[in-house]
Integrase catalytic domain-containing protein (Nesidiocoris tenuis), 882 residues
Amino acid sequence: MTSSPYIAQRVLRQLIEDEGHRFPLGATVLSRSCYVDNIVCSTSSTEEALTLHHELTKLLAAGGFILRKWASSHAEVSEAFLEELKDRPRPVGDMNAIRLLGLEWDPQSDCFGYRVDVPSVEPTKRNILSQIARMYDINGYLSPVIFAMKRLLQDIWLAGLDWDCSLPATLLEHWSNIRSQLPCLNHLRIPRYIMGNPERRSVCLVGFSDASQVGMGASLYLRVWHSDGSVTCNLVKSKSKVAPLKTVSIPRLELCAAVMLSRLVRSVDFLFADFDIADIYLFSDSTTTLAWIQTPPYRLATFVANRVVEITNNSSPSNWRYVGTASNPADLASRGVLANDLVNSDLWWHGPQFLRDEPASWPSRDFHFIGAIPELRHCHLTTTSQELPPVINLMKRCSSFLQVQRVLIYVFRFATPREGLRTARPLSRPGSAEEFRRAITCCIRVTQNHFLADEIKHLQQGEECSAKYRGLTPFLSEDGLVMVGGRLENAPLPARSKHPYLIPYESPLATLICDHYHSFSLHGGPSIVQALIRRTFWIPSIRRLIRSRQFRCKICATFKAKPVQPQMAALPSSRFAIDRCFVNTAIDYAGPVFVKEARRRNCPSTKAYIAVLVCMATKAVHLELVSSLSAEACLAALDRFIGRRGLPETIFSDQGRNFIACARMIRENVPTEQQDVVLQHIGQKGIQWKFAPPYGPNFNGLAESHVKLTKHHLKRCLGSQIFTFEELCTLLIRIESILNSRPLCALTASPDDSFDFLTPGHFLTGAHLLTRPEPLLLDVPEPRLDRWQRVSKTFQSFWKQWKKQFLNTLMQREKWTSKAKNLAPGDLVLISDPHCSPLSWPLARVVRVCPGKDGVVRVAEVKTSTGLVTRPVNKLAILPSY
């Protein structure tokens, strides 16, 4: 960017970002009160003013800037300024003033004034425009006078005068009246401080808008209710605008004036924080504008709606009220006045008289609008009632093409006169081939007469059909049916295949034909169905229609239904608990395995099961051989585990129904009368038991994976042998030591890395269970050994290595990475069962969902014909809704 104004402002913004934290007061003023190269602000005390002077000087000096032309309305503050950096007032009329943003400011009286010089030059378009440009009015105090001058300039433009041409008599007289009173503005005095005593009761903002045939105006006032009960109201800002040359209605101009007022309110947002403004009151003398503001924008015409939206964005509709024209100061800005009238206008400088009274006595928010609100959006509703032929209504009501044919056959039989009732065949006899052909021809004829009426008319008159069907070269057959011509006239095909019937895509007959041949082909795919249909009928865009109908086929949708697989959840906190092993334990059963009662030959064998317990954090494994699935055997295995590994805080298990499938939950294994015994037993030991949802083995995946590892070694060791209980216990302990000696992290191929690797055995015994023998340290001097510190440090190093090497391997999701749409209550689903056909899957409806911490639904409660069941989402297949 090379724009100088941009660079100047951007440098100041950068200076605030870099050094503003050192000078907070100066940074705030520099960011809010800087106008091009002037800093204009006020403070509440001399101490604050001196602090601000110091911070602004230091802040700008940090960027290489020197602030000059300092001025203050307080003598003590002015004395703190360096003489060479002060701004010197100059005589302006009866005061010594400083030029400030087009205004003249007298520091002694703390008032604003204007200096208007009217040169004695010939009044031409160029000179009048120059005079208007010299009157820079940033706050719009002189809006009515400047508006009168702009209105005159518009008349000069309409007169088509050149820049240096003399004015006509009427325009010259008008300019003379304006020019003669411009010097009166030099006597205007506007107080800078209008807030009065700092101990005030309330401050509110009051605005007025008005429009006339020649222009629009808006004015904004600050009303202060002081602690002594007095009220002051002063003009803060105003704006005026000449009406466009294009004729615009008065209500629209009034609406544009209201937009102008709302923008004025938006431009003084800083006042709300500085003075704690309680209320905003906005007035207009146009009931039409007020009615538009209270009307929803979607009901209004585009021009009005766009401006009402802006008004409601900048203000609230409840802020707007009605005021009479006589009490509306914005009327001066919308029509223009002479300078002498403006200087002496109390209505313009202080607002209407009712602002000095209580707000309860002001004009009410309620107003009466007589007549209909203009420029409402008219909703044109066109309703067409076209009675369909009875045959088409029949095709819409019937679910199959054969049903339509049978109904038409009965209708034809009933309508055909019969001679000799005794010899006549009954109406319910099976239909013949000729009757079915007649019914199909009737369906085609009625469909074409209704949907292809224009095409038939063109073909009967020998004209070309529409471009939609022109590529098919349709023609009328001897029966008056529309056939497809095409380019297969000389092909060795049957006549019906070379010239099939033309069936419109949108007709119900096309839908019935697709459904019929889809069922006829035993739910075949689009290719076979399309080939069968094209032998007799030609339906444009047939493949799209076939896919649409197959999507609605219930049987096909059932076979295509797939369970929803949500994204893999984050690991639970139990996987990261740094504590002793088996504080959080996952349990599952493997088996059954067969054991012999004794070692003698032909000894009977019985079933046994393997309890697999896994530490959630370190993956340490504990295997227990269980004699049965009874509650007593489960409790005995749990007691043996606690005696050797310690008391766990939490046990995780699934709710599988079959031990052989490795997915049975212990709670379901125990009979109902024994469940209380199990829960009471673990409750006395202070163990919390958490269950996974039914049929959700992935919720207990850590135990499931170790069941798989245990079976891997067990199958290769057992083979076809049957061990005794003691032999199998010994084998399981060997397998347990193998599993606890496997590395937790990937091994490196570098010879420079440590020879040892981290295993679950390190957290159990301090080394993996298959470690090599260590040398004796009996000959090492005792002072060189600090045994307990060394042991403690060794175990801490295991956890440190566990955090650095092992935890990072759990970060990536190996599967189930895509996000799926969550189930919602009311969805229709099928409960999948891998052991039966999808047609036998039970139908259910989702009653309640159980979202996780990440908002993903992985468990749902569904209602079937037999009752409520809980299932994981990956066992539920969503059926499409039509």
Notes: The chain is about 35% helix and 15% strand. Residues 329 and 351 are 6 Å apart (CA to CA).
